[in-house]
What does this fold into?
Amino acid sequence: MGASSDIGAAVVRALTAAGHDCLGWGRDVGRLPARSRVVDLRSPTEVDAALAELPERLAVVVYAAGLFDWAPADAGDPGVWDELVTVNLTAAMRVTRGVLPGLLAGAPSSLVFLGSAAAHSAFAGNPAYVASKHGLAGFARSVFLDVRDRDVAVTLLSPGLVAAGAGLRAPGVRPEQLLRPADVADAVAWVVGTPPHVCPVEVQLQPQRTA
It folds into this structure.
């Protein structure tokens, strides 16, 4: 999910290169990979319809969809916040409920949520995003506990700022200081490729150098 973003598209490429038969979901039809489905995660009806078309057995699901808002608490638009929380958290929960039967049937399998540094720390200027990623972190931890003994690995993969999308609009940073979409995709491929008896429950990525 989120395959029309730079990060999501990179994840599809990395998993395809690792031998997985990937189906990407996304909103922007012009940016989706060749094998994909247009799904607006803000619409429960569209999500449920797409879930109904998935195969009975799933090996890997990656939730990489996300929205961002640069706005302090006293200036943010509640309508924008509602949409952000829907995509970053509520839809992730709905998708998880829909794919878990397939992941359980296909176990050992992997469910990966793309988190953020904002899942673990608070930052000024984006309270809704921080709240949504904190919520996703709690959800991922709980889902792991629910399915770990049935051989579904659940991972929260949290990169710092990435040179894509909202990361490029972060104040005071240069693209060369940031992670690349391919870095995140390589980490997803590593998580998915770990042995079935191991689960990297939480992984955080940061650039090695600060300048």
Observations:
- The domain at 56-205 is CATH 3.40.50.720 (Rossmann fold).
- The first strand starts at residue 24 and ends at 26.
